[in-house]
Amino acid sequence: MTVAVDMGTDPAGKPVPIDLEELLATRLLVQGNSGSGKSHLLRRLLERSARHVQQVVIDPEGDFVTLSAAYGHIVIDAVDHSEREVAKFAARAREHRASVVLSLEGLEAEGQMRCAAAFLSALFDAPREHWYPALVVVDEAQLFAPTTGGEVAEEVRRASLSAMTNLMCRGRKRGLAGVIATQRLAKLAKNVAAEASNFLMGRTFLDIDMARAADLLGMERRQAEQIRDLQRGTFLALGPAVSRRPVAVRIGAVETSARSGSPKLTPLPSGQVADIKDLLLAPVEEMLPLAMPPRPAPPPEEVMAAIERPAGPVATPALPQRSEEETDTIIADVLRAILSDDDAAQRPAAMLYQDFGVRCRMAGLSRPPLDLPGFTRRLSCARAGIFESPEAEWGDALQLAASLPDDMLGPFLLIARAARAGEPCPSDEEIARTYGTSSMGRVKRLVAYIESRELFVCRTDLSGRRSITLPHLGWTTEASEVAA
Fold this sequence. Notes:
- By secondary structure, the chain is of the alpha/beta class.
- The protein has 3 domains: 4-251, 3-Layer(aba) Sandwich (Rossmann fold); 322-389; 394-484, Arc Repressor Mutant, subunit A (Orthogonal Bundle), CATH 1.10.10.
- The protein is 40% helix and 15% strand.
- It is built from 18 helices and 14 strands.
- The protein has helices at residues 20-26, 38-49, 67-71, 83-96, 109-124, 154-169, 190-193, 207-217, 225-228, 273-280, 300-308, 324-339, 349-362, 372-383, 391-401, 409-421, 428-435, 440-452; strands at residues 4-9, 15-19, 28-31, 54-59, 74-77, 100-103, 134-138, 176-182, 198-201, 234-239, 243-251, 457-460, 466-470, 475-476.
- The strands form 2 sheets. Strands 2-1-11-10-9-3-8-7-4-6-5 form an 11-stranded mixed sheet. It has a 3-stranded antiparallel sheet with strand order 12-13-14, covered by helices on one side.
- Strand 1 (4-9) and strand 2 form a beta hairpin.
- The chain is flat and about 80 Å long.
- GO terms for molecular function: ATP binding.
């Protein structure tokens, strides 16, 4: 089905449509200085396509929440929710094909980047059966895919940039069509901007931005001057979904409006200067201290005893000492509790480590008994079904796995445990859950990599039943019913 979204008119007054189906396959980049009409353009696109495709809007200023009343978009106010909740909402939006606006208004820059990264990553990691087509509109994209780190933590910048790169580079196969808007191309990461095939370039004044815009539009540098002369609300369009040659588009009217608009001149208040001065410099009322109810005076003997009592440090009751066996039991119970959460398989170890520390303190341990590398190792073992300390019983297997990357330890031990017990070979789905992925292709590459290190020998019989041998340990799984 071909749907033409009317964006406005060219200089001759002819309508300029965007082919929505082509846009879903080729993505869109919108650029223009503040006040050039980017938000108006995005609103026109969203309104005209709202009834044809699911829409997801990353809204740093809360401008697009007004789509809710007219078009039924669900507004998610990020200030009221945690990263984990936001990621869960994103997964539900993909499952139910709901159009949503993620409002990041009220968050600092680092909080906005964290929230957007969690939301976009959850959209990207949705199961294959939920890969429905969706427009993912990111306003002020330079905030989430910056060329430099700025004042935010490096891990936050990397997470946000990775999520934006996945959206623009790999999102198409998952049904996600990125539509990103930025004030300055020079501040937007090049690997994100380069993946768009459609461009709408608005007014810009800096030479470096005009040069990049001209390159993307296939114009000569001397022609880039016309970008500076564009009127507000007029954009140069190019791309397979719009036009094969650059064409000027005057964006049409919209039905909804942002909660905040461009500032307008209004008359100054009338009045005498002396009156205004008296109003501004009026005495500030001091806050009166809260009245406290009178306390009865203690008996004199208690006062003298308190004075004569030697001062000393305030004693804090110590937590009970735990033996190694008790500590290991607590660790195993905490790991079971963490992995009982359905979302734990998709969450990275660094995020789960924070939950681990909290649960350990709640269980009576004064500090986390494991550092992050040690926790990552025990978490991989737990995902393979080995919760107690693995060193004594699984020392040989752990020694073999030492040459593998840390994230492969869980799948290796899952297969080793089945081989040691002579159980059927785990299916690709079981390995995927242990590996923290939903991609069967990644599972096949994982098994092939371990086999290339001569730690596995895989055999598939004529009926498609698979078995895996660990030659160094002499363990072999039973043949699985069907190799996934």
